[in-house]
Fold:
Amino acid sequence: MARTPGTTAASNSTGAGLGAGDRGPGITRESLERDLAAFRKAGGRIEVLGNNRTLSASEERELRRQRSEQAAAARVRRKAAR
Structure:
């Protein structure tokens, strides 16, 4: 949305340029709920993207250990099947 001369990013209706944590003067929980309800009523859909969790170092080590044990067990089974 183009700004008209004399307006600043902070006064822009989209809220562009606001600092972190600054919701602007006219945005409240109630106004967001109303806007979302109108958006959904008009057929709008929100796409929820994947939620990939990042493994911690200890989780990563445990996962590698489990995979290693599974691979070793599979080798033993294959060897026994011969």
